[in-house]
Amino acid sequence: MPAQFGSYQSEIYLQGMSGVVPAFTNDPTALESSARELMEPGPYWYVAGGAGSGATVRANREAFDRRRIVPRMLTDATERDVSTTVLGTELAAPVLLAPIGVQSIVHPDGELATARAAAELGIPMILSTASSHTIEEVAEASGDGERWYQLYWPNSDDVTVSVLERAERAGYTALVVTLDTWTLAWRPHDLDQSYLPFIRGIGTAIPFSDPAFRASLERTPEEDRNSAVLRWVQMFTGVDKSWERLAFLREHWSGPIAVKGVLHPDDARRAVDAGMDGIVVSNHGGRQVDGSVAALDALPGIAEAVGDRVDVLFDSGVRTGADVIKAIALGAKAVLLGRPWVYGLAHGGQEGVRHVLRGLLADLDLTLGLTGNRSLADLGRHTLMENS
Ligand SMILES: Cc1cc2nc3c(=O)[nH]c(=O)nc-3n(C[C@H](O)[C@H](O)[C@H](O)COP(=O)(O)O)c2cc1C
Ligand SMILES: O=C(O)C(=O)c1ccccc1
């Protein structure tokens, strides 16, 4: 195991002997309800909620529950290695922090706390275009930590180039372009509470900090905050994007690029043809198309369609170490973790995020060993059994 993860076996026993209980639960399935008790309803439902009836949020979990791991015995899995390489980044574990926007609605330190916790554990953070702190501030908070940048592709080429240049200059190495949220979906929870974080003027790092965006305004964001925020929201709505236009991003980003939100094997092939380096199989945590296929059900077909021509990443519904193992067994190289650590952020800022991540990494390492596997390469379709 890489040094920073230590020995989880001894950690379990030492914690048990110390009698010191953690600040909040180690049960990933209890995190959401415990966060609900301490968060305001607006931010809570913004994070927890999904599109429409919530069918896809449930389907994501159901797809994990339907598959079960078949453990093997006496394989000598005392020494384990969960490291991997994705888009040229060496990872100590196959886990990255999914891009999550407007984190200051959850905790005042927002992305800064997340960046610090991720760096402490050696897990890359993917910074959202909709972040509440600037690209540069988050880069500084992440110190030596690996950083990736997520792009919501602006309608203006000037603004696109400006953000990409800033991200490269600030040391972000890989780019994740999100394709599934060119407009926000019908999200009844947010509508019922009239809670749209950025319309309320939160998460406005780009409107305030980006020179190209500022240049496009008649009045500065300081003079007219609402117009700046509205214009910024319009910047991300649809139009003018195509598989061919990905070449434009390639021209302006020198590192690897992945597209996020792929659910059909043909779209995965188009991403390969467009020269992408990776794809993220994802339904945005059930927040966009209510009734869409569970991301885990889409994964095996996509992994098969692209083979090893690009790196396949996965998110939507990952909650436990066993879930990570299931996604990897079905063809992902690594997973993006979303809501769980956001609840950690709500519970205790940097320390809360760290607590959730550490628990997941320990669970992953222990489950890998207890199922009789020494490395991620040992996992495959043979690892799982599917229940009807
Ligand atoms: C509160 C919240 C904000 C999000 N913001 C973004 C974002 O800014 N960019 C993006 O690509 N995805 C965003 N996502 C989607 C996540 O990156 C990820 O796909 C999703 O959370 C995975 O589902 P899970 O949380 O159920 O595991 C957001 C998700 C949540 C819950
Ligand atoms: O809420 C989301 O799912 C999301 O992706 C987003 C989009 C814009 C701003 C903040 C988050």
From TrEMBL:
Cofactor(s) listed in the protein's UniProt record: FMN
Key word Transport present: no
Domain FMN hydroxy acid dehydrogenase: residue ranges: 20-388
CDD domains: LMO_FMN
Record keyword Transferase present: no
Family of this protein: Belongs to the FMN-dependent alpha-hydroxy acid dehydrogenase family.
This protein's name: Lactate 2-monooxygenase
Biological classification of the source: Bacteria, Bacillati, Actinomycetota, Actinomycetes, Pseudonocardiales
SUPFAM superfamilies for this protein: FMN-linked oxidoreductases
